[in-house]
Amino acid sequence: MHSSDAGTVHIIGAGLAGLAAAVRLTEAGRAVVVHEATGHPGGRCRSYYDHVTDMTIDNGTHILLSGNHAAMAYLKTLGAERLLEGPDEAEFPFADLVSGARWTVRLNNGPLPWWIFAKSRRVPQTRARDYLALARLLWASGDRPLNQLMTCGGPVYQNLVEPLLLAALNVRPLHGSGKLASAVVRETLALGGKACRPLIAPDGIGHALVDPAVRWLAERNVPIKLHHGLHGLLFVGDRISCLDFGVERTPLGERDEVILAVPAYAAASLVPGLTTPTTFCSIVNAHFRADPPAGEPRMIGVVNSTAEWIFALPGRIAVTVSDAGHLLDLPRTEVAERIWRDVAAVMKLPAEPLPRWQIVRERRATFAATPEENAKRPRAETGWRNLFLAGDWTATGLPATIEGAIRSGNRAADLVAQHGAATRAAA
């Protein structure tokens, strides 16, 4: 039941950060209204029907790891844990398109990494001591490019560290933030396989992470107003006094609060003096209407190729290419053909004819996870006492990931709850 004296929380943006904040605040008994500028919730994490392929596809293929505690708690609240699938143990299959080699990295469950001493579990042509660079990364201070903290070369880096960090940072790891890379390693590889099982939504990321939240909120009478984009914020003293939606304005009461969960560039245009990341990296996703061969793992990392991660899903094959600026200006058919050749080589499928396909290019998919851009990420608190920020571009301590987005929504919701409690106490 909503508190009668706590005011309303207006959440601007129905991406995962905004949805996570809405769920957390609703659980706490706060009155919540979600405003979304587009016609669909989910932001970058959404699924939709594509007429070209006659399939439901994701705008980007996303994975979670079993150690993503905020995301797992979010799914548990929604009763949606069963909508993710993954191996019983932490396994990462790889293929090298130049050498033709294939291998699977298999982490043991506990934090003591005995897997690096087992030849069958580690990267081929490596020794246990080759993995010490990862341990040194955990203790790095400050924030410097990764290539100043470890050697960005050799089989361990090229065939394990680089593919994993490229997917997490969405920037070439050697130039990426060592601080963020360290956080990724600390929360995954350093905790052992129990935290590293890769989890995929086989029926679509929207089906697993967005639709359950929308239903959960609807069951609790939380409105999500679509096509309701915020045009401006009106400031009076140290608080937001009004939300300007263009055709209408919503005055805010003394106990009403706002969580701004929009992309970085949108937040910068709405909040005076707000410093945010200004450089972004792209992601290209390819979707093919083709049946994966029986027995293929759900996810395969590919090195020395255009395709980086191939996902074998029911009735379709999806591919993700991170930091994909080199593909943005190529003809779409050329991109599809190039990626399909890699898929065909890995899965032993015919290279021709090209199956029905769709290419989704996101030019500003994530902020560039470099030390310089990481330093620009703002905290959830702002200079206005009833305005808080959420989004994977805020200072979550992680790169722009699903886990980071959900943590940011939780953090903003917790600050709102604290502020509301303090306001009521003072009254």
List strands and helices in order, with pairings.
Elements: E1 8-12, H1 16-27, E2 31-35, E3 47-50, E4 55-58, E5 63-65, H2 69-78, E6 90-96, E7 102-107, H3 132-138, H4 155-169, H5 178-187, E8 198-200, H6 205-219, E9 224-225, E10 232-236, E11 239-244, E12 249-251, E13 257-260, H7 264-270, E14 280-288, E15 299-303, E16 309-313, E17 316-322, H8 332-347, E18 357-367, H9 371-374, E19 387-389, H10 402-426
Parallel strand pairs: 1-2, 1-13, 2-9, 6-15, 13-19
Antiparallel strand pairs: 3-4, 5-8, 6-7, 10-11, 11-12, 14-17, 14-18, 15-16, 16-17
Helix pairs in contact: 1-6, 1-10, 2-10
Explained architecture:
- The protein is of the alpha/beta class and 427 residues long.
- The chain folds into 3 domains: 167 residues, FAD/NAD(P)-binding domain (3-Layer(bba) Sandwich); 127 residues, Polyamine Oxidase, Chain A, domain 2 (Alpha-Beta Complex), CATH 3.90.660.10; 91 residues, no CATH class.
- It contains 10 helices and 19 strands.
- The strands form 5 sheets. A 7-stranded mixed beta sheet has the order 7-6-15-16-17-14-18, sandwiched between helices. Strands 9-2-1-13-19 form a 5-stranded parallel beta sheet.
- A hairpin with a 2-residue loop joins strand 10 and strand 11.
- Helix 1 packs parallel to helix 6, helix 1 crosses helix 10 and helix 2 crosses helix 10.
- The chain is globular and about 65 Å long.
- The model has no long low-confidence stretch (mean pLDDT 95).
